[in-house]
User: What shape does this take?
Amino acid sequence: MKLLLLSIFIISSHAYGFRLNTNIGAKFEDAHVKIYVTSNSTCDEAGISNSELLSIVMDAADDFWNKVPTSNLKIKEGGILETSDSLFLTGELCANDSESDCNASTSVPNVNNIVIACNSDTTKNFPSSSYLAISAPLKISGSNIEGSIILINNSANTTFKNLSRSQMVSVLAHEIGHAVGLGHSNKSEALMYYKNSDKFSKLAQDDIDGISYLYPNKLDGCTGFLGTMGLDDEHNDENQNTFLLSILLGIMLSLLLLILAKIKSFLTLHSRRKLKS
Assistant: This one.
Protein backbone atom coordinates (compact mmCIF):
# COMPACT_ATOMS: atom_id res chain seq x y z
CA MET A 1 0.00 0.00 0.00
CA LYS A 2 2.88 2.40 0.77
CA LEU A 3 4.28 1.72 -2.66
CA LEU A 4 0.90 2.45 -4.25
CA LEU A 5 0.48 5.78 -2.45
CA LEU A 6 4.03 6.82 -3.26
CA SER A 7 3.51 6.16 -6.96
CA ILE A 8 0.28 8.15 -7.03
CA PHE A 9 2.02 11.05 -5.29
CA ILE A 10 4.88 11.04 -7.79
CA ILE A 11 2.55 11.03 -10.79
CA SER A 12 -0.05 13.54 -9.63
CA SER A 13 1.98 16.08 -7.68
CA HIS A 14 3.58 17.78 -10.71
CA ALA A 15 2.19 21.29 -11.15
CA TYR A 16 1.89 22.64 -14.67
CA GLY A 17 2.44 26.32 -15.32
CA PHE A 18 1.74 26.56 -19.04
CA ARG A 19 -1.29 28.35 -20.46
CA LEU A 20 -2.94 28.24 -23.86
CA ASN A 21 -3.15 31.21 -26.17
CA THR A 22 -6.91 31.08 -26.77
CA ASN A 23 -9.90 30.32 -24.55
CA ILE A 24 -10.72 27.30 -26.74
CA GLY A 25 -7.23 25.79 -26.72
CA ALA A 26 -6.83 26.24 -30.48
CA LYS A 27 -3.93 24.60 -32.31
CA PHE A 28 -2.92 23.79 -35.88
CA GLU A 29 -4.83 20.73 -37.07
CA ASP A 30 -1.84 19.62 -39.14
CA ALA A 31 1.16 19.49 -36.82
CA HIS A 32 3.49 20.08 -39.77
CA VAL A 33 3.42 23.88 -39.97
CA LYS A 34 5.29 26.01 -42.48
CA ILE A 35 6.82 29.35 -41.59
CA TYR A 36 7.36 32.23 -44.01
CA VAL A 37 8.87 35.73 -44.04
CA THR A 38 7.18 38.35 -46.21
CA SER A 39 9.19 39.55 -49.21
CA ASN A 40 8.50 43.22 -48.45
CA SER A 41 9.97 43.02 -44.95
CA THR A 42 13.21 44.94 -45.35
CA CYS A 43 13.67 45.02 -41.55
CA ASP A 44 16.10 47.93 -41.92
CA GLU A 45 15.45 49.36 -38.43
CA ALA A 46 15.60 45.88 -36.88
CA GLY A 47 19.04 45.44 -38.39
CA ILE A 48 18.49 42.27 -40.42
CA SER A 49 17.38 41.24 -43.90
CA ASN A 50 14.33 39.06 -44.52
CA SER A 51 16.58 36.15 -45.55
CA GLU A 52 18.54 36.50 -42.28
CA LEU A 53 15.26 36.62 -40.39
CA LEU A 54 14.13 33.40 -42.04
CA SER A 55 17.42 31.71 -41.10
CA ILE A 56 17.10 32.88 -37.48
CA VAL A 57 13.50 31.77 -37.13
CA MET A 58 14.32 28.32 -38.50
CA ASP A 59 17.11 28.01 -35.92
CA ALA A 60 14.49 28.92 -33.31
CA ALA A 61 12.19 26.18 -34.60
CA ASP A 62 14.90 23.53 -34.86
CA ASP A 63 16.73 24.32 -31.61
CA PHE A 64 13.58 24.49 -29.51
CA TRP A 65 10.23 23.17 -30.78
CA ASN A 66 11.24 20.61 -33.41
CA LYS A 67 13.25 18.46 -31.00
CA VAL A 68 10.60 17.61 -28.38
CA PRO A 69 10.24 13.80 -28.41
CA THR A 70 6.77 13.83 -26.82
CA SER A 71 5.36 16.26 -29.41
CA ASN A 72 4.65 15.69 -33.11
CA LEU A 73 4.89 19.40 -33.96
CA LYS A 74 7.29 20.00 -36.83
CA ILE A 75 7.89 23.52 -38.10
CA LYS A 76 9.23 23.62 -41.64
CA GLU A 77 10.71 26.39 -43.74
CA GLY A 78 8.19 27.85 -46.15
CA GLY A 79 10.56 30.44 -47.58
CA ILE A 80 9.93 34.02 -48.63
CA LEU A 81 6.25 34.86 -49.08
CA GLU A 82 5.90 37.10 -52.12
CA THR A 83 3.62 40.01 -51.26
CA SER A 84 3.32 43.74 -51.79
CA ASP A 85 0.68 44.26 -49.10
CA SER A 86 1.94 47.17 -46.98
CA LEU A 87 -0.38 46.23 -44.11
CA PHE A 88 2.13 43.55 -43.11
CA LEU A 89 4.54 46.42 -42.45
CA THR A 90 2.24 49.03 -40.93
CA GLY A 91 -1.05 47.35 -39.97
CA GLU A 92 -2.33 46.61 -36.48
CA LEU A 93 -2.03 43.04 -35.25
CA CYS A 94 -5.62 42.08 -34.55
CA ALA A 95 -6.17 38.62 -33.07
CA ASN A 96 -9.08 36.49 -34.23
CA ASP A 97 -11.64 37.39 -31.57
CA SER A 98 -15.42 37.78 -31.76
CA GLU A 99 -15.19 40.78 -29.42
CA SER A 100 -12.53 42.51 -31.49
CA ASP A 101 -13.25 45.95 -32.94
CA CYS A 102 -10.30 45.91 -35.33
CA ASN A 103 -10.74 47.47 -38.73
CA ALA A 104 -9.86 45.02 -41.51
CA SER A 105 -8.70 47.86 -43.74
CA THR A 106 -5.97 48.84 -41.25
CA SER A 107 -5.08 45.42 -39.80
CA VAL A 108 -2.42 42.89 -40.72
CA PRO A 109 -3.95 40.51 -43.33
CA ASN A 110 -5.07 36.98 -42.52
CA VAL A 111 -2.51 34.31 -43.36
CA ASN A 112 -2.09 30.56 -43.57
CA ASN A 113 0.58 28.70 -41.57
CA ILE A 114 2.94 31.15 -39.76
CA VAL A 115 4.06 34.38 -41.41
CA ILE A 116 6.68 36.78 -40.06
CA ALA A 117 6.93 40.44 -40.99
CA CYS A 118 8.84 43.49 -39.78
CA ASN A 119 6.28 46.05 -38.63
CA SER A 120 6.65 49.71 -37.64
CA ASP A 121 3.26 50.51 -36.07
CA THR A 122 3.98 52.26 -32.76
CA THR A 123 0.36 53.14 -32.02
CA LYS A 124 -0.98 49.65 -31.22
CA ASN A 125 1.73 47.05 -31.90
CA PHE A 126 4.89 48.60 -30.45
CA PRO A 127 4.06 51.50 -28.14
CA SER A 128 7.38 50.96 -26.36
CA SER A 129 10.90 50.07 -27.48
CA SER A 130 10.80 47.24 -24.93
CA TYR A 131 8.42 45.34 -27.24
CA LEU A 132 10.78 43.23 -29.34
CA ALA A 133 8.14 41.19 -31.16
CA ILE A 134 4.49 40.23 -30.90
CA SER A 135 2.46 37.34 -32.27
CA ALA A 136 -1.06 35.94 -32.38
CA PRO A 137 -3.26 33.48 -34.26
CA LEU A 138 -5.04 35.50 -36.96
CA LYS A 139 -7.12 32.84 -38.63
CA ILE A 140 -9.05 30.31 -36.52
CA SER A 141 -11.68 27.84 -37.70
CA GLY A 142 -13.50 26.08 -34.89
CA SER A 143 -10.75 24.95 -32.55
CA ASN A 144 -8.08 24.93 -35.25
CA ILE A 145 -5.53 27.62 -35.97
CA GLU A 146 -5.17 28.08 -39.72
CA GLY A 147 -2.76 31.00 -39.65
CA SER A 148 -0.66 33.02 -37.21
CA ILE A 149 1.45 36.14 -37.56
CA ILE A 150 4.71 37.15 -35.86
CA LEU A 151 5.72 40.81 -36.08
CA ILE A 152 9.23 42.10 -35.39
CA ASN A 153 9.55 45.63 -34.02
CA ASN A 154 10.89 47.61 -36.98
CA SER A 155 10.12 51.06 -35.60
CA ALA A 156 12.77 53.77 -35.25
CA ASN A 157 13.16 53.09 -31.51
CA THR A 158 13.40 49.29 -31.74
CA THR A 159 15.97 47.53 -29.59
CA PHE A 160 15.71 44.29 -31.56
CA LYS A 161 18.82 45.30 -33.53
CA ASN A 162 20.84 45.36 -30.30
CA LEU A 163 20.29 41.66 -29.65
CA SER A 164 22.88 39.01 -30.41
CA ARG A 165 21.91 36.29 -32.88
CA SER A 166 21.32 33.79 -30.07
CA GLN A 167 19.07 36.29 -28.30
CA MET A 168 17.09 36.81 -31.51
CA VAL A 169 16.70 33.03 -31.78
CA SER A 170 15.36 32.89 -28.22
CA VAL A 171 12.89 35.74 -28.78
CA LEU A 172 11.57 34.16 -31.98
CA ALA A 173 11.29 30.75 -30.30
CA HIS A 174 9.07 32.42 -27.67
CA GLU A 175 6.90 34.01 -30.38
CA ILE A 176 6.63 30.70 -32.26
CA GLY A 177 5.24 29.22 -29.04
CA HIS A 178 2.45 31.80 -29.10
CA ALA A 179 1.88 31.28 -32.82
CA VAL A 180 1.26 27.54 -32.41
CA GLY A 181 -1.13 27.98 -29.47
CA LEU A 182 0.78 28.45 -26.22
CA GLY A 183 0.21 31.36 -23.86
CA HIS A 184 2.52 32.55 -21.11
CA SER A 185 3.79 30.19 -18.43
CA ASN A 186 3.96 31.13 -14.75
CA LYS A 187 7.23 29.21 -14.43
CA SER A 188 10.16 31.64 -14.50
CA GLU A 189 12.48 29.00 -15.95
CA ALA A 190 10.23 28.45 -18.98
CA LEU A 191 10.81 29.95 -22.42
CA MET A 192 7.11 30.90 -22.43
CA TYR A 193 7.47 32.95 -19.22
CA TYR A 194 6.14 36.46 -19.80
CA LYS A 195 9.51 38.22 -19.66
CA ASN A 196 13.20 37.74 -20.45
CA SER A 197 12.40 35.78 -23.60
CA ASP A 198 15.87 36.59 -24.98
CA LYS A 199 17.68 34.64 -22.22
CA PHE A 200 16.99 31.01 -23.14
CA SER A 201 18.95 28.36 -24.99
CA LYS A 202 16.54 25.42 -24.51
CA LEU A 203 13.02 24.56 -23.43
CA ALA A 204 12.12 24.01 -19.81
CA GLN A 205 9.98 21.06 -18.76
CA ASP A 206 6.90 23.28 -18.59
CA ASP A 207 7.38 24.29 -22.25
CA ILE A 208 7.70 20.62 -23.15
CA ASP A 209 4.55 19.79 -21.18
CA GLY A 210 2.61 22.54 -22.94
CA ILE A 211 3.60 21.71 -26.50
CA SER A 212 3.10 17.99 -25.80
CA TYR A 213 -0.41 18.72 -24.58
CA LEU A 214 -1.29 20.59 -27.79
CA TYR A 215 0.61 18.32 -30.20
CA PRO A 216 1.05 14.92 -28.52
CA ASN A 217 2.92 12.00 -29.98
CA LYS A 218 0.34 9.23 -29.84
CA LEU A 219 1.32 5.72 -28.79
CA ASP A 220 -1.27 2.93 -29.23
CA GLY A 221 -4.08 5.44 -29.09
CA CYS A 222 -2.76 7.16 -25.95
CA THR A 223 -1.31 10.62 -25.90
CA GLY A 224 1.46 9.75 -23.48
CA PHE A 225 0.81 13.00 -21.61
CA LEU A 226 -1.58 13.56 -18.72
CA GLY A 227 -2.12 16.72 -16.72
CA THR A 228 -4.22 19.78 -16.16
CA MET A 229 -3.64 23.15 -17.77
CA GLY A 230 -4.96 26.68 -17.71
CA LEU A 231 -6.00 29.22 -20.32
CA ASP A 232 -4.86 32.80 -20.68
CA ASP A 233 -8.43 34.06 -20.57
CA GLU A 234 -10.14 31.64 -18.23
CA HIS A 235 -9.52 28.38 -16.42
CA ASN A 236 -10.71 25.31 -18.26
CA ASP A 237 -12.52 23.28 -15.58
CA GLU A 238 -13.18 20.41 -17.97
CA ASN A 239 -9.50 19.46 -17.90
CA GLN A 240 -9.49 18.93 -14.14
CA ASN A 241 -10.68 15.37 -14.71
CA THR A 242 -7.21 14.57 -16.07
CA PHE A 243 -6.17 14.44 -12.41
CA LEU A 244 -8.13 11.17 -12.20
CA LEU A 245 -6.23 9.89 -15.19
CA SER A 246 -3.00 10.75 -13.39
CA ILE A 247 -4.16 8.67 -10.43
CA LEU A 248 -5.03 5.79 -12.76
CA LEU A 249 -1.56 5.97 -14.28
CA GLY A 250 -0.10 5.90 -10.77
CA ILE A 251 -2.13 2.80 -9.91
CA MET A 252 -0.98 1.05 -13.09
CA LEU A 253 2.64 1.90 -12.30
CA SER A 254 2.20 0.62 -8.76
CA LEU A 255 0.77 -2.68 -9.97
CA LEU A 256 3.70 -3.09 -12.32
CA LEU A 257 6.16 -2.47 -9.49
CA LEU A 258 4.31 -4.95 -7.26
CA ILE A 259 4.46 -7.60 -9.98
CA LEU A 260 8.18 -7.02 -10.42
CA ALA A 261 8.66 -7.28 -6.66
CA LYS A 262 6.75 -10.60 -6.60
CA ILE A 263 8.88 -11.95 -9.43
CA LYS A 264 12.06 -10.92 -7.61
CA SER A 265 10.82 -12.55 -4.40
CA PHE A 266 9.95 -15.77 -6.24
CA LEU A 267 13.36 -15.94 -7.92
CA THR A 268 15.13 -15.32 -4.61
CA LEU A 269 13.12 -18.06 -2.85
CA HIS A 270 13.72 -20.47 -5.72
CA SER A 271 17.47 -19.78 -5.53
CA ARG A 272 17.56 -20.46 -1.80
CA ARG A 273 15.75 -23.77 -2.22
CA LYS A 274 18.28 -24.87 -4.81
CA LEU A 275 21.14 -24.03 -2.45
CA LYS A 276 19.57 -26.07 0.39
CA SER A 277 19.08 -29.08 -1.86
